[in-house]
Amino acid sequence: MTRHPAPGARLRAVVVGCLKEQRLQLLLASLALVGVVLAELVAPWPLKIIFDHVLLGQPLPTSLRALQPLLDLGAGPALGAMAAAIAVIALAVGSLSYLQLYTTAQVGHRITWRLRSALFSHLQRLSLAYHRHQRSGEMLTKVASDTNLLRDLFAEWLLTLARHALTMVAMLAVMFMLNWQLALVVAVTLPPLLGVMFLLNRRVKASVREQRKNDGRMASRLNEVLSSIALVQAFGRQQHEEGRFQAEIEANYRSGMRSARSSGAIVRAIAVISAAGTAITVLLGAREVLAGRLSPGELLIFMAYVASLYKPVRDLGRLSAKFSRASVSLQRVGEILDTEPDADDEPDAVDLPRPAGEIVFENVSFGYAAGKPVLQDVNLRIAAGERVALIGPSGAGKSTLVNLLLRLYEPDQGRILIDGIDIRRYRRESLRREIGVVPQDHMLFAVSVRENIAYGRPDAPIEAVERAAQLARAHEFIVDLPQGYDTELAERAANLSGGQRQRLCLARAFVKEPAVLVMDEPTAAVDTESARLIHDAVAHAHRHRTLLVITHDHADLSRYDRVIRLGEGGVAERPVPLPGAAQRTPSTAPLSLVEPRHA
């Protein structure tokens, strides 16, 4: 029985692993944080010495007797020394804060790097069924935007929270030592502040969750329109698309304003409660000074601590909204990493050696949704080296057969064999290495022509790339490009014609030198001359390869040894013999039920 990781386990593993790698930076940031807190604790004391012991001439307490020689030098040197102390403390706070921010930023960016790498890797392992039900803009938002918020959460904000918490505890301790009655007044205001933050933070989280979803929908809408801009302009639907995008923007604006109102309410509540606490502390402290139980310098220190105490609380109030956004992002990223990929290769799976190319579909059934089969009990045998055309109406399951052969999906029932062995016995990567695919959509990347052709065989020498291009009848137009094989293609290869794109896709399949060549509508949407070149290329490339072609072009069916027609419901009918076609395999040949042999 397969055991799946607990929810959030993969996300925790990535973050914890990265934090362990960065433990030296975290230690340095923690030491800098402690230094900042200590510097902020001693920052008000030079002012106390100036007010109480230089200006008012009060004797130094026992804890400060070490400063007596300085006061004996006179008011001028003492004031100069205290001013220098203030400057040194400020410099220390600034330097240590810079060190903390730099090291935490380093940790944060490393976490972002690792998270994005893990997300990208995991997304590539997820099934096509998962990607079919996801919006591309939503995925882009999670990988690009949500990881940035998590970077701040795990690095900057957590250390900021630690700094504020440590500052509050240390200052409260010193305030209780100075005057426990006044310190108690300040401490009483903290629970209401934290309670208000907690309650309002729940509202912020709900509105932020909605806002992040709206961000994803807006990104998806933008990506969809920009990727189909030619279609939009051709049909004159710019105004319609502007209206739809405007609706997404307005929804995003409304959710953003709800989040802003909740965040503003937190800041307002903290400001009111902290102002009330400060006013009461000033009133009671002044009475203590008038009664002689507290010196002016001690009241000055106390009020400096009160201001420093409420500042972290106000900062935490502003950070609480960011924490809410980050927690929502944490859930969204965790949802991707928690999604289980397709079943991995079997532990005893082996690499597929160079196959002869016999393909057998044995009682194969499959559906993209439960209860809606696309293929049902399909039995089909393609002999090694045979040329087979696959025809039938749209939705009959022609492309599905190819997807199953490539193990992009797994059959619900039945099995697929190559040379008599179930393809699940092979590692996916080695299986796909022996199958060349020419997709219908002419997908190319915005890199050089050479990189596109060598995509399935990155180590292919330039001689192999050029040989594949010549075989695909693409070499002639490639050498006429500005930089030849080093020419960078535009996005979606928009600087090439449809026929040129298709021939590059052929070359990409040929350079792998596969045992099985699969083509999906190779001459669809190309001109007659390009179709002729493609057919010639396929005819020359077919030698010693099994060829499976999905086509609607019935005029050229005589090129194939057999034609397999799929009917509605995905039921494979008897092969259709064609006059003049080379009948290498009898149309009524039974399935070869070969016992699996070890590779």
Task: Please give a structural write-up.
With 599 residues, this protein is an alpha/beta fold. It has two domains: 9-338, ABC transporter type 1, transmembrane domain (ABC transporter transmembrane region fold, Up-down Bundle), CATH 1.20.1560.10; 359-565, P-loop containing nucleotide triphosphate hydrolases (Rossmann fold, 3-Layer(aba) Sandwich), CATH 3.40.50. The chain has 18 helices and nine strands. The chain has helices spanning 9-21, 23-42, 45-55, 68-72, 75-125, 128-132, 136-178, 180-227, 229-234, 238-290, 296-338, 398-405, 428-433, 449-453, 462-471, 475-479, 498-510, 528-541; strands at 359-366, 375-382, 387-391, 413-418, 421-422, 435-438, 516-520, 546-550, 562-565. It has a five-stranded parallel sheet. Helix 18 (528-541) links the parallel strand 7 (516-520) and strand 8. Helix 7 runs antiparallel to helix 8 (180-227) and helix 10 packs antiparallel against helix 11 (296-338). The longest helix is centred in the middle third of the chain and has 53 residues, at 238-290. The radius of gyration is 36 Å and the shape is elongated.
